[in-house]
Amino acid sequence: MAVETRKERLRAILWRTLDEQLQSEAGAIDGSGNRRRLTGPWGAFFDEHSAWDGTTQLSRDLYQELKGHFDDNLIREILLAAADVKISRTTLAKRKIELLQAIAGRHGFEIVASEHHWILRADRGKGGWANRVERLAEPGEAGAVSNVYIASDSTLADTGRMLDEAGEDDLFGALLGIPGCCREAFERSKSLASEKQNDFVPYVLENTCGDMPYDWRLNYTAQYFGFSLLSFFPCSFRCPAAAAVADSTLSMLAGCDAAWAKRFVELQQTNVLYTENGGLHLFRAHLRNGLIAYDARDLQSSEATELAYLLQQGDRLEVSGQHAVQVYRGSRKIGAVAGEDTCMCAFY
Ligand SMILES: [Zn+2]
Question: Whole-prediction pTM value?
Fold first, then answer.
């Protein structure tokens, strides 16, 4: 089907769906004579704050069932989608899709998988978080994954899939619960980011004004070390709308399992040295007066690169700007990294 025809069809379906939702949910007039507003992810088309209510209760039973089968980020995403806060997208292999399908059946949420299966290309130095599509998979090919859309009901999950496959990033982003300012920033940077490894860290940093450290709630780079409160790149490391999303997410996770939520906070209250090809390096030590004093236990690298080795030899990082750091051992300077592919993201 031609792209334009497909988009027209998609818009027609979307309007019809919204119309039905408006009539059933929001069309009714409440006791005060006001028109009720759309709830859940649908509301994000009109009011981006509507769904991110931190008092929403996530299902502890579902959480218990997901633990051990999926990673922390994906568990967060499944819980939020099942609670009708947002829709979520992930990529999964067939066996995991079957497992999630069975869990969805027991807990009353829906998943939809893309028809196509893909083989991903491993990233360089990103610990697997920036994998990109390499090619379409052959039928039954080992290692193939599908895009999976998770939502509280099948209309939402289907709509998410259609919007994503039609490249309607803005509308899809609204259903994913991404604030408008962050969706606009994504739109502006996506062609530049795709020339490298589809990583937005340099563009987020460029948009971030003021002195380090930045707002730890927006430390999306923690994702490269396991998980973070956000599922999207904020427009800046000081974006108030994204910080509100992180706050709501944290209180919902804490309501589900306080110790688990604390691990998100601890991983985000860190400093991360990002490089395009030399790995990402996380320091669980404060930035004070432009210096991070650390020992080997405070340092974690996404991959064993030359830079990781250099940092292991050092005990102090001197941060001279967003794109320049020097590594010291005692009083001796043992190395330096600088340039546009180096990004110091300090949150702690
Ligand atoms: Zn923003």
Answer: 0.86
